[in-house]
Every structure is written in structure tokens, then in C-alpha cells.
């Protein structure tokens, strides 16, 4: 279980996250929704150790993540798919995937086989430069690369951003499939409607604070959420 309590994160004088509490139970899909600048990405980067909190705690199965390096956090079972995908251009699809297993070289080939089964398109394109993939394929590559680390908890930062509708649906199907294999998911999305549809629970963030929380279905039906995030 991931437990975030009293989390504050600053960029210099800017208080991007202002005392946030939430939990992600094992086996859940939890989504954080909210407008641009609400603090969603900052929270995700702090969980994965790229940023440090100025106050509060982040615990994962009773380990204090704030004390661990990003690679120790990956070793603890948490992998992040960053906003904007960040595939390594100039490297092939297969090379990108292998990078995702840098902490576990012994099981890399076995894990690569499993990721190719999950993402047949990545197998087809394994020798191709990652830069030549479409946006949707690059998103799959970024997700496949994270799965190479065999995470127990997958952090997804805006996976549907900038994709054509057909790819958006595919990405949400993949999220459901990964979850069905026993991976817990923390999903950040501006596409609140689809995120709440797949999520067990959600938290609505605004100006660095949690304004509302509930089951995905309850938030989808909430008038304030509908007016602010679902186009009325
Ligand atoms: P988006 O969907 O646009 O990424 P978000 O909800 O993920 O939005 P954050 O990226 O976490 O929001 O940003 C929260 C606040 O922190 C915003 O006011 C943003 O301008 C600010 N911020 C984010 N990154 C930095 C940075 N590197 N330096 C200074 N301020 C930052």
C-alpha cells in the first residue's frame, strides 16, 4: 500500500503541492485528476524520488520513500511512465525496453518476452529506431519499458496526452490489462472521464490540494466534477 500524508513540495518559492493526503491500496487503480498546474505531475515525481518533499511522508509497504534514491524506489517495486513518454531516440525499440530492466539484467530476456506478448506491436518494431514510432506506439514503448522493471505499482503520468482517439482507447485497454495481471496503478490524467471510468477511486486536485475524493463512479456522477472536468 502507498500512503501519502501531509505532502508538500516546493519549487523555490512556488508551493506546487500544499499538504496532500491519499492512499493507493494494493490491487487498485487510483486516479488523480485536475486541471493544468494542479500539482499532479509534481506528486508523481516526488513518489518516484525525482523530487523531494518539503514536508510530509510517502510510505510504500512501510518503507519511507523520501529516504530512497530513484533506483531504490524502482527496486522497491515502483516504476513510472513519465509525461511525454521520453523514449530514447537513436536507440531501437528493443534497446529502449532493455534499459527498463537495468536493475535486473539476469531476468531481462524473460521479461522482454513477456512485454512482447503484452505489446505485439513492439515486437514487430523491435529493430526500429524509437524516434520513428507514432505517438501512440511511443506511449506503448514507454509503458513496456516500465513493465520491464516488473513493477508492483505503476505510476502513469498523462498516458493519453496528445494521442489520437483510437490510441487513447488502446492505452486505456492496456492499463486495464496490466491491472488485471495484478499490477496496482496510480494514474494521472487530464482526460478525467476515461480515467474515472477505469479507476476504483479518484482524487480531484486543484491548486496543490485534494478538493474531493470518492469512487470513480461517484466522482463521474458528481455535478461539481462534471461541470469542472467533464464538460458539464
Ligand atoms: P500538468 O498537467 O500541466 O503537468 P500538473 O497538475 O501535473 O499539471 P504540475 O506540473 O505538478 O501540475 O505543476 C504544479 C505547479 O508547479 C504549477 O503551478 C507549475 O507551474 C509549477 N511547476 C511545475 N514544475 C515546475 C518547475 N520545474 N519549476 C517551477 N515551477 C514548476
Give a structural overview.
The chain is of the alpha/beta class and 232 residues long. Helices cover 37% and strands 27% of the residues. The chain has one domain (2-230): P-loop containing nucleotide triphosphate hydrolases (Rossmann fold, 3-Layer(aba) Sandwich), CATH 3.40.50. It is built from 10 helices and 10 strands. The protein has a 6-stranded mixed beta sheet with strand order 6-7-8-3-9-10, sandwiched between helices. Strands 2-1-4-5 form a 4-stranded antiparallel beta sheet, with helices on one face. The model has no long low-confidence stretch (mean pLDDT 94). Bound molecules: adenosine-5'-triphosphate. Adenosine-5'-triphosphate binds next to β2 and α1.
Roughly what fraction of the amino acids lie in strands?
A: 25-35%
Bound molecules: adenosine-5'-triphosphate
One letter per element, helices H and strands E, the order comes to EEEHEEHEHHHHEHEHEEHH
Largest sheet: 6 strands, mixed
CATH architecture descriptor text: 3-Layer(aba) Sandwich
Helix share bin: 25-40%
Here the CATH topology equals Rossmann fold
Give the strand tally.
Answer: 10
Keywords: Amino-acid transport, ATP-binding, Nucleotide-binding, Transport
GO molecular function: ATP binding; ATP hydrolysis activity; branched-chain amino acid transmembrane transporter activity
InterPro entries: AAA+_ATPase (IPR003593), ABC_branched_ATPase_LivF/BraG (IPR030660), ABC_transporter-like_ATP-bd (IPR003439), ABC_transporter-like_CS (IPR017871), BCAA_Transport_ATP-bd_LivF (IPR052156), P-loop_NTPase (IPR027417)
Family: Belongs to the ABC transporter superfamily.
